[in-house]
Amino acid sequence: xxxxxxxxxxxxxxxxxxxxxxxxxxxxxxxxxxxxxxxxxxxxxxxxxxxxxxxxxxxxxxxxxxxxxxxxxxxxxxxxxxxxxxxxxxxxxxxxxxxxxxxxxxxxxxxxxxxxxxxxxxxxxxxxxxxxxxxxxxxxxxxxxxxxxxxxxxxxxxxxxxxxxxxxxxxxxxxxxxxxxxx
Length: 183
Fold this sequence. Notes:
Blueprint: E1 2-9, H1 22-31, E2 35-40, E3 45-51, H2 56-71, E4 77-81, H3 82-90, E5 104-109, E6 130-134, E7 137-141, H4 150-155, H5 158-161, E8 166-170, H6 171-180
Antiparallel strand pairs: 1-3, 1-4, 2-3, 5-7, 5-8, 6-7
Protein name: DUF1697 domain-containing protein
Organism: Streptomyces ficellus
Pfam family, one: DUF1697
């Protein structure tokens, strides 16, 4: 029995840095013994089937090691199963159907994060931008898009994210990953 997972690679193929061709990434996952490997966009989204009950952190560590060995640089990876991705999409606190995809983002975290980590951020100072915490995820509403978001900059400060891996996807990508991980 298998489960479909999504691997979210952090910071690849950005401005010519950490180039990971998607064809090579698919081959790498297949060589690791995974099946039904598909990539989505060039920004580090790949889905694959692995044994049901496989531990997400172990799958991520295996992929990180394989990428470093093959490409010669480290890439942080998060692996999440389809049920988790569906739960994240279903728990969105913002009206996703009414917003443009560029306005809504989800930052996935390597572990649960409490509100105390973000206590220093004065949310009122960033309105109409807003964020809400979910299960190992942060939902960000940025009406002008992520590139113009002052709140996104504040949320990504190293002291806030210290000790965890975080990677952000826009709402279209979240929805597509939900679709691609349906068993």
